[in-house]
Structures are given as structure tokens and as C-alpha cells.
Design goal:
The structure holds two protein chains of two kinds. Chain A is α+β, with helices and mostly antiparallel strands. Helices cover 24% and strands 35% of the residues of chain A. In chain A, strand 3 and strand 4 form a beta hairpin. Chain B is mainly α. Chain B has 17 helices and two strands. The chains are: A alpha+beta, B mainly alpha.
Chain lengths: 159, 395
């Protein structure tokens, strides 16, 4: 991968990123943070503007491209390091019987076989919660287990 | 006081309307701001039917604002000027820059000789027609999308070269213009200028850590005040010593640009430049009497045609020098046609010096007319550059 960087006095900075062969993506970062993205199929062709983003939008979009929100992986291979187990996210509904109960009271580990890795509440994530941690409506339980165990957990949470 | 406030209010509102119209027409704001000044200023047109158009008098605050406009235009030139960039590929840039200078300054000097201008005025005129407008050209490059293509590197490189050269030209012309009479006085003022600028240059090169610390304040407000304060103070001191305040500001800009604060300066101080630069163009409009364009009509026509073509020619050569194809090379030439703020800065220097430079009135009228035509003509020509290439037989 080659990136060419050019200083553009009065404008900002230009980065040219080689895609394949002669095809290049040209990213223009203006001093005010605005990003313009062009594509130039060959050195002789004119750059064609693809889109324009504000500083904030570009940062968010960048993490999308980076795969920070979602990393597409081959499921078969992803399961290898965990054996037959996988990680799943379970919603705790408003009328769920576990609302207000602690993890140990629900007996999640004992009754389902899954391990609770974390509980997400609003913007917060409580990692490795204590057995006494009380579940609330709207929580998202992140658990590790086999497919069958996950199904049991889904039933338990919505029983 | 009420009168001043109302008229300033009118001035800024008219500028805003003119700028909005220019944007609507895909034109640079510079000619629009000048025309705004012409329309509401004390010179003709005086009225539009029954509506009185002499709305703004030339208040002192406008002149001070215009002066700050010059200072901050040059400050930003220095801020965006990177010595490393000039030294990165010195031979090619030097070749392109030198061609651009010799051809266009030469054509300017020839025109001045043709119209019988004395030497000093001829130097001013040649500088005025030589220098392209960084503001108009850069903005057009972004709007046309050429900024992403290789021709923009050559165009911007040439602008950087021109900017450095114009700093030298301004320093020399100021020294000569303010030095007045004899050779001794001129030499003395050139000496003072050189010494003062040498000190500034030394600070710019070796003083980076100190400047860095000076600007390290958390609040944007204090940051702005420090930047504006130091720049204005140095520019003012320069003027006291008979050195070009614009060039002094240019060096302050370079010194600031070497620090890690460069980007923050762009965003925090940028609006200050925009405000005062608008006032600068506006006051030029205020002091312009469009009826005097007729007196310099022939000179205008000759200069527009000759220097328009010479820029295209020197740019074509420069583009070829960089190994660009015909279409891109032509774009380099056409892209450098717009003239603007720096031509006006040079002309206003001539006007300030006044008595020591012969035929300044003529020079001032010419420059305003010339910038109005060239800034518009240049941007329009950029729109049709490719049609021209196709018309003359493709790439």
C-alpha cells in the first residue's frame, strides 16, 4: 500500500491512495476539517468527486471503514478459538421475569450453562459482573455458550 | 457615533449581500467586495434613480481595518508558506517559478515602457500584473475539483514561489517608496529593512520553541488575542522603522507556521483575516472612481490581453516542465490568470507612498480595473479550459 501525501498551501493536505494499478483514491483534508474524497481511474483522467464529509462525519465514517463497529468474519473460523461456544447478545425485556433479580438468584450459570461476560446498560458496559448484580429492563446480557445453551438463556430471560 | 455605527452596519451588510451574490454566480468574492465599495461609496454612481447610493463615508476605522486586512492577508501567506516545501524539489519549482516571473514581470515591464511610465512606477506595474491571486486561484481549484489532480501541485508551487518573491519585491518597493529622495536615503531604508527582516527571519528559523510556548494557551480567546496582538505589534513596529508592515506580517506568519499551532491559527485567526480582508477590498472600492477607468482604458485592454496570454503561455511551459500532458499544462496556465489581493496590496503601497511615485492615481485606477477584469476572466476561463484543449486537437 502506498500513500502519497502533499501539502496544499491555503487548502490543507492531500492524500493519494493506490487501489489497484493506476486507480487512486484521493482524500483531501481541508484546514477546517472538511474531507473530500475523489477517485482517479488513471493518471490521465480527471479526478471525480465521490463525496464530502464534515470532520465529525469523517471520523465516524472512518471507524466504520476500520471495522470498529462491525467486523465481517467467517463464522466457522471465528468459532475455532472458542470451540463450540460463541458470544451472543440477549435483550432483557420490560416484562422479563429476571428484572430486579441478581444474576445468582436467576441462576443463569447453573440453569443455562452460559457464562455472563458483561451487561450493557444504556451507554455503560459492566464487564464481568458480580453474582449480586441486579438486572434491569433494557439491559443487554452478553454471554458465552453453545447454541443450545444460548437458546435456554433466551427462554429464561423471556419466560 | 451613531452615524459611524449605522454606516459600518451598511458596509458589512452590503459586503455580505455582494459576497452572497458572488457565490451564487460562482465568482470570487474579491471583485464583489470592491464593487460593493464602489456602489455605496462617495464616487459615482451616486444614485439609482431616486435612491441615494452614497451611503458610506470613508471613516478612519475602515482605513485601519483595511490596513489590518493587508497585514493578515500576508500573515496567512506566511503561515501557509512552508520553507521545506520550496526546498523539497528545488530545481523544478525554481524552473517553473523563474519562467513565470521572467515572462510575466517582463511583459509587465514592457507594457509600462510602452505607456511611458517612469522606472519606479514601472516596477510597481510589472509587480501588479505579475502576481497571481492566491485567494482566487486556490478557491477556484477547489471548486473545479482540479485540486485533486497533478496540475494543482504545479499551480500551488508557482503560487508559493510568487508569494516569496512578492515578499522580497514588497520589502524593496516599500524601502524605496518610503525612503524618499536621494540614493543615500534609499540605501539607508533598504539597510534598515534588511536588518529588521533578518531579525524576524532568525526568529522564524531558530525561535520556534519560544514562539511555540508563547502560543501555548488553552482558551481560544486568549490564543486569538496573542496571535493578533503579536502580529499587529510587529507589523506596526516595522512601519515605524519604514519597513513594509505586510512583509513583517509575512515573517510572523512563517514563524507561527513552524510551530504545532499552525492548524489552530487557521481556524481561530482565519475569521479575523476574512473580516479585515473584506474591509480592505471594500475601502479600495470606496476610493475608486470608475469613470477614471476610461482614462486608463487603452492600458487596461493591452494589459488584460497581453498578461492574460503571457500567464497561459508561462503556465503551459511550466506544466510541460513537470511532465504534464497538454490538457493539464493548459490548466496550469489558465489557472494562474486570476489576479487579486496582492496586486491591490502593491497598488495601495504605491498610493500610500504617494508623492515619491509618479502617476500613482493612474496606477491605482488601472489596478482596480485590472483586478476586476482578471479575477472574473480567470475564473471563467478555468471553466472553459478543457473545451479549448478539445478545440485545439485534444490531449
Amino acid at each position: 500500500m502506498t500513500v502519497y501525501e502533499t501539502d496544499l498551501p491555503g487548502v490543507g493536505r492531500k492524500f493519494e491512495y493506490e487501489i489497484d494499478g493506476e486507480d487512486r483514491l484521493v482524500v483531501l483534508i481541508h484546514h477546517d476539517g472538511k474531507r473530500e474524497v475523489f477517485r482517479r481511474p488513471s493518471p490521465e483522467a480527471d479526478s471525480e468527486k465521490l463525496f464530502e464529509l464534515s470532520d465529525q462525519q469523517a471520523r465516524e465514517f472512518g471507524t466504520l471503514l476500520e471495522g470498529a463497529y462491525f467486523q465481517p468474519v467467517d463464522l466457522e473460523r471465528a468459532q475455532v478459538p472458542l470451540g463450540d461456544e460463541l458470544i451472543e447478545w440477549h435483550d432483557v425485556g420490560a416484562d422479563s421475569p429476571v428484572v430486579g433479580k441478581s444474576l445468582s438468584d436467576c441462576g443463569i450459570r447453573r440453569r443455562t450453562g452460559t457464562t455472563v461476560l458483561a451487561v450493557q446498560r444504556d451507554d455503560e458496559t459492566v464487564g464481568n459482573p458480580e453474582p449480586g448484580f441486579e438486572l434491569a429492563a433494557g439491559d443487554v446480557v452478553v454471554a458465552l455458550g453453545t447454541r443450545a445453551e444460548h437458546e435456554t438463556l433466551t427462554d429464561l430471560l423471556s419466560e | 457615533m451613531a452615524e459611524v455605527l449605522v454606516e459600518l452596519g451598511i458596509a458589512f451588510t452590503v459586503l455580505a449581500i455582494a459576497g452572497a451574490l458572488a457565490a451564487r454566480l460562482d465568482q470570487s468574492v474579491i471583485p464583489a467586495y470592491i464593487l460593493a465599495g464602489v456602489v455605496v461609496g462617495p464616487n459615482p454612481p451616486h444614485s439609482l434613480g431616486p435612491v441615494d447610493l452614497t451611503l458610506v463615508s470613508r471613516w478612519q476605522i475602515l482605513d485601519v481595518g483595511a490596513e489590518l486586512g493587508v497585514v493578515f492577508l500576508l500573515f496567512f501567506l506566511g503561515l501557509e508558506f512552508s520553507p521545506d516545501r520550496l526546498l523539497a524539489r528545488p530545481t523544478r519549482l525554481l524552473g517553473v517559478g523563474a519562467t513565470d516571473f521572467l515572462v510575466n514581470f517582463g511583459v509587465g515591464a514592457a507594457i509600462a515602457a510602452l505607456f511611458g511610465f517612469p522606472l519606479l512606477t514601472a516596477l510597481f506595474l510589472a509587480s501588479i500584473v505579475y502576481i497571481s491571486s492566491s485567494a482566487v486561484v486556490t478557491k477556484s481549484l477547489v471548486e473545479r475539483g482540479w485540486i485533486a489532480d497533478p496540475e494543482s501541485d504545479v499551480i500551488l508551487g508557482t503560487l508559493v514561489f510568487e508569494d516569496l518573491l512578492i515578499a522580497v519585491v514588497l520589502a524593496v518597493l516599500t524601502a524605496v517608496a518610503l525612503g524618499g529622495g536621494g540614493v543615500g536615503a534609499v540605501l539607508a531604508s533598504v539597510g534598515t529593512a534588511a536588518a529588521f527582516l533578518l531579525v524576524l527571519a532568525a526568529v522564524a528559523v531558530y525561535g520556534t520553541p519560544y514562539v511555540e510556548r508563547l502560543l501555548s494557551v488553552e482558551a481560544d480567546e486568549l490564543f486569538l488575542l496573542f496571535a493578533v496582538g503579536i502580529t499587529t505589534l510587529v507589523a506596526g513596529e516595522a512601519l515605524v522603522l519604514g519597513v513594509s508592515e505586510a512583509v513583517a506580517a509575512f515573517f510572523v506568519g512563517i514563524a507561527f507556521g513552524q510551530t504545532d499551532h499552525a492548524e489552530r491559527l487557521e481556524t481561530v485567526v482565519g475569521p479575523t483575516r476574512d473580516l479585515f480582508a473584506a474591509v480592505f477590498f471594500f475601502t479600495i472600492g470606496l476610493s475608486t472612481d470608475v469613470t477614471t477607468f476610461l482614462d486608463v482604458g487603452l492600458l487596461l485592454v493591452v494589459a488584460v490581453v497581453a498578461t492574460g496570454l503571457s500567464k497561459v503561455a508561462s503556465g503551459l511551459l511550466g506544466g510541460r516542465f513537470y511532465g504534464l500532458n497538454r490538457r493539464r499544462s493548459l490548466r496550469v496556465g489558465v489557472g494562474l490568470v486570476p489576479r487579486g489581493e496582492f496586486s491591490l496590496v502593491i497598488a495601495s503601497l504605491a498610493t500610500t507612498a504617494g508623492a515619491t511615485i509618479p502617476r500613482t492615481d493612474e496606477l491605482a485606477s488601472f489596478t482596480v480595473g485590472y483586478v476586476l477584469v482578471m479575477s472574473v476572466l480567470g475564473t471563467v476561463a478555468m471553466r472553459y479550459a478543457d473545451e479549448f484543449t478539445a478545440f485545439t486537437g485534444g490531449e
